[in-house]
Structure formats: C-alpha cells, structure tokens
Amino acid sequence: MPRVALFGGSFNPIHYGHLLLADEVAEMLALDRVIFMPAARPPNKGAADLAPAADRHAMVALATHGNARFEVSDLELRRAGPSYTVDTLAALAAGSSDELFLLVGSETFLDLLTWKEAERVAWLARLVVVPRTGSPFDGQSTQAQKVLREIGHTRFVEASAPPSPEGVIVARARSLDISASDLRRRTREGRSLAYRLPESVIAYIQARGLYRA
After folding, report:
1. Is pLDDT above 90 for 135?
2. By CB atoms within 10 Å of each CB, which of 28, 52, 163, 173 scores lowest?
3. Residue 47 — very low, low, confident or very high, per pLDDT cuts 50/70/90?
4. pLDDT higher at 69 or 49
C-alpha cells in the first residue's frame, strides 16, 4: 500500500524550510509521495498579505519540480469556500488505497481541537507532528495529552521506517529557520531572498510583483 503524506499550508511563499522538512519526513517514514496542498482560503489566516492562490500554487510547482516524490495539488483551489483539511482528506481518501499521513507542526497539533471535525481528520489520516526546530515538543504536557484523547488516540510514537502500526507520530525532522513573513518583508524592502528559496520562485515573485504592496 503506497504511503502518501499531505503537506498543506498557505505556502506564502514556499521556501527551503518547507522543502527540507518534507524531504526529511519522507525519508524518515519511507513515504512514496508527499502532496503539497496550497490552501485557497486558509480558515485561520487573514488575507492581507496572502498572494493569490494561483500564484502560490505556481510557486509550489516550481519549487517541487524535479523531486520524484513531491507533487503539488490544486484540489483546494478548485473547491469553493474555506480550505478545510477534513474535506481535502475525504476527497483524497475516496476510492484510494493509499495509506494517508498528515504533516502538522507541533503548535498546530496543540490547536487541533479548533479545527473542523478534528477527530475525523485523525481518522482519515495518520497524524505526523513535526516540532519546530529549537522548540522541543512535550507529548506528556496537559494540552498535548488532551488533544490526543479528544481525537481518539492513546500515545505518541517516534518516527520510523516503516511507521509503527498505531499512535500519533512525532517526526523530529531537521528544518531551517526561515519564515515566510520574513521573506515577504524582505521583498517589500527590496532585500535579498537568495539562499532562502529556490531561484525559480524568486524569479516568479519578482516577475509577478508579489508582496510589494
């Protein structure tokens, strides 16, 4: 059964931190594919600094080109309304034999109970919690244990290849200390973006005049 992970987000813009994280987790869990899913309308983010969905999708396609395990989907761009993960997972699972995983940051996991149908999200896909670099994730904390119980799980397990048969996976993957908000600010200020995101994405941002206003 193919192991496929969903990596969703605004990708505003995508950068090397996203790419390294996805590559690390793919290797740790022996994934067959990682699907990058740009959100058309992220339910938890304002639209003030958000580049058009079509541009964010195009930048992800440029950034992931050439990696056989990476692909980009426009599923959420084609669906009306807010981009709820539960709807995306349900669509991916329909008629598929793939074993689905969902990559989430540790802060996002602690906030999971605010998501639409959080328990169903955890039923549709195996959760993979990726702690932010430099911020250790305490699975025994009161909040982490509460989320774990509410979504119907009993324990956290460390990432392995192949993955253990049950539990919420904690993947302590390496990443880079790069933030999309800093990249947007640098663009507004006319500063360098080099070594932070692929040259093809930098060229796209400049050609489209993104993040200037």
Report:
1. no
2. 52
3. low
4. 69
CA distances from 54 to 6, 68, 76 (A): 19, 22, 11
Whole-number pLDDT of residue 3 = 96
Q: Which residues contact 213 (CB under 8 A, 6 or more apart)?
A: 188
Phi, psi values for residue 99, rounded to 5°? -90, 115
Q: Is residue 188 part of a domain?
A: no
The answer to whether the CB of 69 falls within 8 A of the CB of 106 is: no
Would 194 be classed as within a structural domain? no
**Number of structural domains in the chain:** 1
pLDDT, average across residues 142-149: 96
The domain of 55 spans 3-177
Structure tokens at 181: 């908000």
Q: Are 197 and 14 in contact (CB under 8 A)?
A: yes
Write out the chain in H/E/C secondary structure. Answer: CCEEEEEEECCCCCCHHHHHHHHHHHHHCCCCEEEEEECCCCCCCCCCCCCCHHHHHHHHHHHHCCCCCEEECCHHHHCCCCCCHHHHHHHHHCCCCCEEEEEEEHHHHHCHHHCCCHHHHHHHCEEEEECCCCCCCCCCCHHHHHHHHHCCCCCEEECCCCCCCCCEEECCCCCCCCCHHHHHHHHHCCCCCCCCCCHHHHHHHHHHCCCCC
Asked whether the predicted pLDDT for residue 44 surpasses 90, the reply is no
